[in-house]
Structures are given as structure tokens and as C-alpha cells.
Design a protein that fits this description.
The chain is built from 11 helices and 13 strands. The protein is elongated and about 75 Å long. Helix content is 31%, strand content 23%. α3 packs across α4. The chain folds into 2 domains: 209 residues, P-loop containing nucleotide triphosphate hydrolases (Rossmann fold); 60 residues, Reverse transcriptase/Diguanylate cyclase domain (Alpha-Beta Plaits). With 342 residues, the chain is an alpha/beta fold. It binds adenosine-5'-triphosphate. The site of adenosine-5'-triphosphate (ATP) has 11 residues, from β2 and α1.
Length: 342
């Protein structure tokens, strides 16, 4: 149960610029979206010793962190790590056993206009099946005194304008995710929290969601999202919160997390692999086979390997650095964690 890993200290990275343009929408036609003018209040989201116990199960165990505005923060953890429970406590849907979550120093329940402060998507399937997408958004807008016009704007933004009058129960999971994201944005909130909102989206939808998250952060919002899609997390997040067994394992910029938990290796392809392997071995470098004519040399720089090959007179067809992925880093870190016994 106990974890030996200590949380890594947090620093604020430089936000990435949004790289992709707005989505074509489900019909594939590019859409001109009336964009909300940047008018952000920088909102800070903090967890202070957040703890949740269900009987003998400790789902969240003393989590403290600070999610910053203007960047995308990814929330990572294996199944059962406590991500959803943490998000539910932040959103006031679960009562912490101990600790608290605050927004600008206040609990969500104390905010006068919570919909304008926090928008979230926890479960895209939680829509009334016979209600249309437009009616669903209208009903949410009414509860927050949001003008009706916002609904049409959001349907355009998420690419559901052509499906606005269809019952949400007929939607695919990807369409429900789009509707859920629109629901999260109804109040034009300063903080956006999305839990596994990429599930069910097709390739275009995933790219659209990535771009949207980056744009929301670039507008100065505080953006927190969880996903098991490591490739997407690596493309989207500036900063990572990693938990396991309800405890914080890392709170650091994504590049720092990758550097700390992966090794860079040199990769070569050569028509004379045996000669190069022998030359590398003489220089104290271990190499493993990679493909029919390649070698991977962990911890070696391409400069060093190139020099060894040139000195040995070995021809190279390719010489390139290979970096570890977020998936490598995450699996390495979480595999080292002791598992809780229930
Ligand atoms: N209502 C509940 N009653 C009892 N145990 C619960 C409840 N909700 C969550 N848990 C337990 O708390 C732990 C954390 O669950 P949680 O759903 O927060 O994890 P998660 O990181 O979101 O997992 P996943 O990635 O699989 O969605 C798990 O052991 C889970 O079984």
C-alpha cells in the first residue's frame, strides 16, 4: 500500500501554441466559429490533502496539487488510481473524507456562479436519451442564466449543428462526447475539466478535441483532462499530474517527466551489423538488435556512435536518436508502484 515515490516538484512550463485549426464538424465542412473573446480571470484549482475512503478502500489518499491557468494539465493514472473520485470531489459530487478542493481559495459550493467558473464532462453517456442535443444544452443554459444564443454557437463549435434536433439517445459515443464537451462549455467557464472525453471520438474528433483543449488553455483557462490515450496525452498536455493508489506520484511539466523516466538511445542501421556491434562493444557500449539490420544503443549519443562507426570503417544507412514515449515513462513509473491489497 505504501508508496516510496515522492511527488516531484512543480514548475510552470511554457504553454504550447495550438497547432491545429478548428474542426470541420461531423459533416466535414469547415465552420466559421464565433469565438468567445478572451476575458479570462486566471482561475486556480487546488487540492489540499484530498482524501476519500469507501469503507476499507482508500480511493484518494491525501492528494495536494495546484492546477494552473493557461496550460493544459493532464491527469494520469492506471485503472482504479482514483482519478474520477478526485474529479468528483473537486466538482462537489463526492464529499471528501478529509481535505478539500478549492477554486481561487473557495469551495465550489461557495461560488455564486459556479457554471461560469467550472465546466466539466465526467460521463458523456449521462444525457436524457429522448432529448435533442439543442434541448439538452438549452436546459443546462437555463439553469445558469446563459443566453439561448450560446446553444447554437456551441453546437457549431463542437460540430453538432446538423444533429441539433436529433435525440441524444441516438448519438454515437463520439457524438455524445462532443455534446458533453459543449455542455461543459455552456457557462464559458474559466476552468474546464474533462474525464476520458476522447473515448469514442474518431481520428478527426480526437484531433479536434486536442486543438480545442489547447485553444481553451491559450485563452487563459485552467484546463484539466484525463485520458488513457498516452499518445494524445503526450501531444496535448503541458503539465502532468500522475497518481496511483490515490497518491500523487508526479506533478511536473511533461518534458521533465519524460526526461526523468525514459532513456534516450541511438538507433543505427548498417549493412555490417556484426562489425559495428564489435566496435561498440570495444568502446564499452551494449547494443541490441532492432529490425533486420538495426541496432539500438541505450544511453549513447548519435555523435558517439557515429564516431565509433567512422573509426571502425563501418558504413551506416541510418543514425538517429530515439526518445522514450510518455507511455514508456508512465508504464515504467506505475509498474514500480506497490499494489494495494483490498
Ligand atoms: N462509490 C464507490 N464505492 C466504493 N468504491 C469506490 C467507489 N468509487 C470508486 N471506488 C473505488 O475507488 C478506487 C478509485 O476509483 P476511481 O474510479 O476514482 O479510479 P480511476 O482512476 O478513475 O479509474 P479508471 O481509470 O478505471 O476510471 C477504486 O478502487 C474503486 O473501486
Amino acid at each position: 500500500m505504501a508508496s516510496n515515490s515522492r511527488p516531484v516538484s512543480a514548475t510552470t512550463p511554457t504553454p504550447r501554441a495550438p497547432s491545429d485549426r478548428r474542426p470541420a464538424g461531423l459533416t466535414g465542412r469547415p465552420r466559421t466559429i464565433p469565438h468567445t473573446a478572451p476575458r479570462r480571470r486566471a482561475a486556480s484549482l487546488q487540492a489540499h490533502g484530498l482524501t476519500k475512503r469507501y469503507g476499507r478502500v482508500t480511493a484518494v489518499d491525501g492528494l495536494s496539487f495546484h492546477v494552473r491557468p493557461g496550460i493544459v494539465t493532464g491527469f494520469l493514472g492506471p485503472n482504479g488510481a482514483g482519478k474520477s473520485t478526485t474529479l468528483r470531489m473537486i466538482l462537489g459530487l463526492d464529499r471528501p473524507t478529509e481535505g478539500a478542493a478549492t477554486i481561487n481559495g473557495r469551495r465550489l459550493a461557495e461560488l455564486r456562479h459556479p457554471m461560469q467558473v467550472v465546466g466539466s464532462l465526467l460521463d458523456a453517456r449521462a444525457v436524457h436519451p429522448s432529448r435533442s442535443a439543442a434541448d439538452h444544452l438549452l436546459s443546462i443554459a437555463r439553469t445558469g442564466d446563459v443566453p439561448r444564443g450560446r446553444v447554437a454557437e456551441l453546437l457549431e463549435q463542437v460540430g453538432l449543428a446538423d444533429a441539433a434536433t436529433r435525440p441524444a439517445g441516438d448519438f454515437s459515443l463520439g457524438m455524445k462526447q462532443r455534446l458533453g464537451i459543449a455542455t461543459a462549455l455552456v457557462g464559458d467557464p474559466d476552468i474546464v475539466i474533462l474525464d476520458e472525453s476522447l473515448n469514442g471520438l474518431d481520428a478527426e474528433g480526437i484531433r479536434w478535441a486536442r486543438t480545442l483543449m489547447r485553444e481553451l488553455a491559450a485563452e487563459g483557462r485552467t484546463m484539466l483532462f484525463s485520458s488513457h490515450l498516452m499518445g494524445e496525452m503526450e501531444l496535448t498536455a503541458d503539465h502532468l499530474l500522475v497518481i496511483d493508489n490515490g497518491r500523487l506520484l508526479a506533478d511536473q511539466p511533461l518534458p521533465a517527466f519524460l526526461s526523468a523516466h525514459t532513456t534516450t538511445q541511438a538507433h543505427v542501421r548498417t549493412p555490417d551489423r556484426d562489425a559495428l556491434r564489435a566496435a561498440l562493444s570495444s568502446a564499452g557500449l551494449a547494443a541490441s538488435d532492432s529490425g533486420p539490420d538495426g541496432l539500438d544503443i541505450p544511453g549513447a549519443t548519435t555523435d558517439h556512435v557515429g564516431h565509433i562507426a567512422a573509426t571502425a570503417g563501418v558504413e551506416l544507412a541510418e543514425l538517429s536518436p530515439r526518445k522514450g514515449s510518455l507511455e514508456d515513462a508512465f508504464l515504467r513509473m506505475t509498474a514500480a508502484q506497490p499494489r494495494d491489497e483490498e
